[in-house]
Design a protein that fits this description.
By secondary structure, this protein is an alpha+beta fold. Helices cover about 30% and strands about 30% of the residues. It contains 16 helices and 22 strands. It comes from Rotaria sordida. This is Chorein N-terminal domain-containing protein.
Length: about 700
């Protein structure tokens, strides 16, 4: 009998760490930090009881955090002044809420507290201004940051940044006599009374002292010229096998748990390298195979043995090549692009297995409602911060991109839904082919805008250069196959009776303007096209699809108690805490530093900027999308026992076009289609043409 209750089994790991001398001392020959970590096999196991205990531990930890706040008021519950227990509890609740929620808010409005906070804010403002002027006082700043809340901390920094930016502009406008007077009257030691040892030494004395004690100055290390190909950090992580097993009781009468699902990831590789010349990085991810197995429908009667013929839910369609390969590099050496992104994947087959999916849902479905508000709040706050930071970084990097080397080639993913939720070669299936996705960069496109009388041809060519990206999704299709039909062979055909939706090809050309100085040219352009969307549906295959979906057993819904529903409703009504992003948005509305700094940059670069006419807006995004043809053909079966069909009704859309322009202050949208036809294939006119029930031909565009 095989039993396993270890969440993480003992694993073997080999790590090699090599720390070399500084780059300058060893003449840039080897990396300063080189790490090679090799994991042999990692086995993770979890069952329903462990998952339930984990939820209980998290809930108990949440209760402990809440208890630590109110534990000082527990003496009221043991007070003999009140005879009735209910009075003690009401007194406890009243005192705790009053001291923890009401009085802290009221004390914030006392004049003593307001004055103390204002003095603390002014002090931190001066310290932060000194930090902007390269006079740091870290100890004082850290002590003040602990006493100031997040909102006021960000607000003080924003206002200080505005004051610092304005002061820089005013200093540029001062004459040489004013600068001399300001320098003569200024006292550099007034703000910082502490004696600075480094300022009293000359550069030669500093170098001798640093060499004697083995210290490297930060400024000297920053000014060090590294070779472009030199790598100072080299990290390699290898994973031989990661296996995740989910254990559960398959039937209520079972005495021992069995593996209901196994996920295996083999031969994973992660490499990271950094080049300090321009602070560039290179990240490589390799994955050989991914496989997920489930429960066999015909279980072995012997409980001490496991049936090894498990159905496969996820597997690589091509076992010879690696499943996934990803490369990301900034400022690659072999090209002039800013970023190099490469991703390749092999086809992946996903089979829906009803028994495994239902058992997994029942395994991870808790018996009762767990109050995990503290954990949810922390997870929600981390998620929102990561999401907004990622969006900000992506948007800022997209604005700065001048050249991009991208090559993404993702093979098809096949999603198979079999009859009765169990895949067999002789069963009817619905196959969704998500298509072959390619995303590559194209050649630079030069756009000729309207020329003024006085213009510089070189500047205009630079302003109108676009980065071109080619996106294509090929062979997106939907199939319904009856018994004894092989979906692997049918998917290669362009037209067959099994095609509910024939193969669709989507092409999308993206272009990004490099120099955003010409308002007549859009910053982003997108031109998309689908040549045809064709669908042939017969009544027999349509009924077969509905019967197939109805034959799949879905998980049974469990009825929850009134107490669990009440707790769940209370948790939904609770509001999430304010995140860092929301604080930034509130302060940005109060102190629009982005707008102020943008106006200052525009004033400084007036000679480089193109004069914008009053009322003219910048085109942020321009999208043109066209579907040349949409055709839906309905067929009906001639005989009940025959597969022969005849055309019944045809619905035809011709040339659907949509255009949208997103400008600074408004949005322009335009759409049309040329013709709509509904044709009855059963009847003919006198001209021996099919009966046209509806036609709306629009020749004018």
């Amino acid at each position: 009998m095989r039993t396993n209750i270890q969440i993480l089994q003992p694993l073997n790991c080999q790590a090699k760490l090599k720390i070399a001398k500084t780059a300058q001392e060893q003449d840039f020959e080897e990396a300063v930090l080189a790490t090679d970590i090799d994991f042999e096999d990692i086995y993770l196991n979890i069952n329903r009881n462990q998952y339930s205990d984990l939820l209980d531990v998290l809930e108990f930890q949440d209760y402990l955090n809440m208890k630590s706040k109110y534990i000082q008021y527990y003496t009221i519950l043991n007070d003999n002044q009140y005879e009735r227990t209910s009075l003690k509890r009401w007194k406890f609740a009243y005192t705790a809420i009053l001291n923890e929620h009401v009085r802290p808010r009221l004390t914030a409005f006392k004049w003593e507290v307001i004055k103390e906070n204002l003095n603390r804010y002014k002090e931190y403002r001066e310290v932060y201004l000194q930090e902007l002027n390269h006079h740091k006082n870290e100890k004082c700043a850290q002590e003040l940051e602990k006493q100031i809340d997040l909102f006021n901390l960000i607000y003080i920094r924003r206002t200080a940044q505005i004051q610092y930016a304005k002061k820089k502009i005013e200093e540029k406008d001062l004459s040489w006599w004013d600068k001399l007077v300001n320098w003569w009257n200024s006292n550099p030691n007034q703000d910082n009374t502490e004696f600075k040892f480094t300022d009293s030494l000359s550069t030669e004395e500093k170098t001798k002292l640093y060499q004697a004690i083995g210290y490297k100055d930060d400024q000297s290390s920053q000014q060090l010229d590294y070779p472009e190909e030199y790598i100072d950090i080299d990290i390699s992580l290898k994973l031989n096998l990661i296996e995740i097993n989910v254990w559960s009781l398959i039937h209520q009468n079972d005495l021992h748990m069995k593996v209901i699902s196994r996920l295996s990831i083999s031969n994973g590789l992660l490499e990271f390298q950094r080049r300090p010349a321009r602070d560039d990085i290179q990240l490589v991810i390799d994955l050989n195979s991914l496989e997920m197995s489930g429960i066999d429908s015909e279980l072995n009667n012997n409980e001490s043995e496991l049936n090894l013929s498990h159905p496969i839910l996820i597997q690589s369609f091509n076992q010879t090549n690696n499943l996934l390969h990803i490369e990301f590099e900034t400022n690659p050496l072999n090209s002039k692009s800013d970023y190099r992104i490469q991703a390749k994947s092999q086809p992946l087959q996903i089979n829906y297995h009803a028994m495994t999916i239902n058992t997994l849902i029942e395994c991870f479905l808790p018996d009762r409602h767990h109050d995990l508000e503290g954990i949810k709040e922390a997870a929600y706050s981390i998620y929102t911060d990561i999401k907004h930071r990622t969006q900000f970084l992506v948007s800022e990097n997209l604005k700065k991109i001048k050249d991009l080397d991208i090559d993404i080639d993702l093979q098809s993913i096949y999603f198979i839904v079999p009859e009765y939720g169990f895949y067999q070669s002789s069963s009817s299936v619905i196959c969704l082919d998500l298509g072959h996705l390619t995303f590559k960069n194209g050649e630079k496109n030069i756009q000729n805008s309207e020329k003024d009388v006085f213009y510089d041809a070189k500047n205009e060519q630079d302003d109108s250069t676009y980065i071109s990206l080619k996106f294509q999704l090929k062979n997106l299709q939907l199939l319904y196959l009856t018994q004894n039909e092989n979906w692997i062979d049918v998917r290669l055909q362009e037209d067959s009776p099994s095609h509910l939706i024939k193969p669709i090809t989507l092409t999308l050309d993206l272009e990004k303007l490099i120099h955003i100085e010409n308002n007549k040219l859009p910053i982003w352009k997108a031109n998309g096209e689908i040549r045809s969307i064709e669908s042939n549906i017969s009544d027999r295959r349509l009924i077969g699809c509905f019967n197939l979906i109805e034959s799949i057993p879905f998980p049974q819904s469990t009825e929850k108690s009134d107490q669990d529903q009440y707790k769940k409703s209370l948790s939904k009504n609770k509001k999430h805490q304010t995140t860092t992003k929301q604080h930034y948005d509130q302060i940005e509305s109060m102190t629009p530093i982005k707008k102020i700094l943008l106006e200052q940059e525009q004033e400084q670069d007036q000679q480089k900027q193109i004069e914008i006419k009053s009322g003219e807006q910048t085109i942020q995004l321009s999208i043109d999308f066209q579907i040349r043809k949409i055709e839906l053909l309905l067929k009906r079966t001639l005989l009940d026992l025959s597969n022969d069909t005849e055309d019944f009704l045809r619905i035809y859309f011709q040339s659907i076009f949509a255009s949208i322009k997103i400008k600074t202050f408004d949005i322009e949208f335009y759409a049309y289609f040329e013709d709509l036809k509904i044709i009855d294939e059963q009847f003919e006119t006198n001209d021996k043409n099919k009966l046209n029930i509806l036609s709306s031909l629009n020749k004018s565009k």
